[in-house]
Amino acid sequence: MENEEIGHVCPPSVVKWLNSPLRKLIQNPRKIMRKYVRNGDTVIDLGCGGGFFAAALAEMVGEEGKVIAVDLQEDMLNITRDFAVKKGVLDRIILHRCKTDDIGLSDEKADFAIAFYVVHEVPNRSSFFKQVKNFLKINAHFMLIEPKHHVNKPQFEQILKEAETAGLKYIMPIKVWGSRGMLFGLEA
């Protein structure tokens, strides 16, 4: 599937910035997710891009855990694979190509999932959030982070309503530089 066929998605040409060591100064994966990811966890990185978060998550889950790096674009998954090899964590990462309207992880159960700068590009957010809810374990968390330069406050509030309507429960806002974020859990 070519990028033109799948609508607006972040192109592989931005990976140089996405995987830059300088990014860690303002969006450090360990600082953002350390309270929610444990050794042995199963984690899903939705829209993994170039693998910046997937590789860090693979370090955090340790040898007993796994990270499922999901992306719509084969090029991004290839870049993630190369980045994970460079970081020495490919053995903990499963690369998974999704479809525009289907994440395709109905058999998985995750302890934690993250969608970092992804949801504003999803054409059917209602379906997306329902799928996320279905693969989360009881007491699992889902972190949604959106860029302020693409998603204004009213748009973010609409995204949050759609997540809540799908059955995800607000836990607390997440602060990440230049971003709007929310941590979710499952409704009891």
Describe this structure in words.
Strand 1, helix 4 (52-61) and strand 2 (66-71) form a beta-alpha-beta unit. Helix 6 (125-135) packs across helix 7 (153-165). The protein has a 7-stranded mixed sheet, with helices on both faces. It has helices spanning 15-18, 23-26, 29-33, 52-61, 74-87, 125-135, 153-165; strands at residues 42-46, 66-71, 93-97, 110-116, 136-147, 168-174, 179-186. The protein has 188 residues and is α/β, with parallel strands linked by helices.
Features:
188 residues, alpha/beta, 7 helices, 32% helix, disordered N terminus
Compact summary:
With 188 residues, the protein is of the alpha/beta class. The chain has seven helices and seven strands, in the order αααβαβαββαβαββ.
